[in-house]
Amino acid sequence: MPNLQLLGNVKPAHLGLALMIAASALGLLYVLAVKPIYNLLLHPLPQVPGPQALGRQPPALHLQYGADIVRVAPDELSFLRPDAWREVMGYIPRGVPENEKDPLIFRGLNVEDSVIGAPRDRHRVMRAMLSHGFSASRMLDQQPIIMRYIDLLVERLREKAVVDRGIPLNMVLWYNYATFDIIGDLAFGEAFGCLESAALHPWVAVVFSWIKLNARVVQYRRTVPWLGDLIDSVLGRMATEQVKEHMGYARLRRLDAAHRQGRPVPDAQPARGEREPVHRRGLRDHGVDPVVRVVPAAHPPDKMQKVTDELFATFARDDEINFNSVQSLKYMIAMFEEALRIFPPVPVTVPRVTPPGGRQICGDHIPENTKLGIWHYSMYHHPGNFALPEEFHPERWLGEDPRFAHDRKEAFEPFSHGSRNCLGKNLAYAEMRTIMARMLFNFDMRLADGYERWADGIQIHNLFEKSPLFIHLTPRGDHERAHLRSKH
Q1: Which domains, from first to last, does the chain contain?
Q2: What span, in angstroms and rounded, lies between the C-alpha atoms of 191 and 152?
Q3: Is 392 left (phi over 0), alpha (psi -120 to 50) or beta?
Q4: Distance between alpha carbon 283 and the CA centroid of its chain, in Å?
Q5: Residues 2-27: pLDDT tens digits?
Q6: What is this structure's pTM?
Q7: pLDDT in tens, 63-119
Q8: Is 50 left (phi over 0), alpha (psi -120 to 50) or beta?
Q9: Neighbour count for residue 222 (Cβ, 10 Å)
Q10: Which of 66, 170, 131, 206 is nearest to 420 (CA)?
């Protein structure tokens, strides 16, 4: 019998530490002994190559096993085959269960009322309701709002370039200023004032910290699922509180905008269902835009020269550059496609889960409750899909370079695939092309010394965490523009 008196003398802090050590020891035993034996002898996915316990990241596993389908966790697969997009996330007839999004990703975040996490039938209704807001005509309606902040971005950078002559600017930060001012106006009817103050709004810091924290929470849930309750009670609570703070602030902004504009105050539930996707879409799609916009400047000067030549062969005046006109810039379009391939908006996966009874995926029957992952970064950097995958070559998208004749471009889905793909895709494309065209028309851009390998320092926390990238901006005058025009 244990000595209960001795136990009673243990201090709570010491007891908590002892319980943590015991839990860690049991977890280690589970990971190193029990789980591998189960996976080896009893698990329904033993035929798929992959580690028996905790796995490495998908790029390394695909390389290690030389397979386009690998097991990255005991119950999770990663696919590199382009047809996986259709079979995992493609349109499915009514009455046939879909591969739903993994509930583990969203647990505790209450996204069932948003277009991101709504069940299939509710999602269909919500998407139909939202689709008009992202139509071509609506995008043109939003153009004056976005152009106002692009004008302000150019104006503020021109001021900085003149005052701080010779001092490079952190363009990741300045593009973030523009991004969140645009998101603020589109979602709430008012900018955050980032461009005016040359500083990020405190709410933006909450958004970024939530993204990083949620990435850690999800990783812990996936790698040690049996400790999920403990993780959710600590880290999950922190993430949920940050989401509540984010949603509460967003709600106040909506109410204030409605009051100022004389519109009816939105009810709480429709507000979440109708308005929330705008700023969540902004986090996902606009969140990587600063990376996409600066990637071309961080690559060989000959690429920038080609797009600059194309720009001045097309436009004589700044005010000619708009959402429609930039669609004629073929090399710029190819450059952004390549930038999205190198740095996709969401480099990781948002796994789907096979329904009861399992599903036939890429020629194999996959058991029910299996997670299906398509990691964008792995798919786009796989040499079986793209030649010279680690190199930046916009030419691969122009169909003229024989080196890329066998690229499997159907593998490229940077805004996802199927009925749950990104509604804001066309708006994101138009915005980043227009910003880049306006920047190149107004500035000569040169990478600062020491930033040639800038991309090596980028980290992934669901989205890319951008390190500073300093670029020298030299305002272009009328004489220089005329000279560039005369070459064509």
Answers
A1: 111-345+414-486 (1.10.630.10)
A2: 12
A3: beta
A4: 7
A5: 343 333 443 444 444 454 455 555 55
A6: 0.80
A7: 888 899 998 887 889 999 999 999 999 988 888 899 998 877 766 555 666 777 788
A8: left
A9: 20
A10: 131
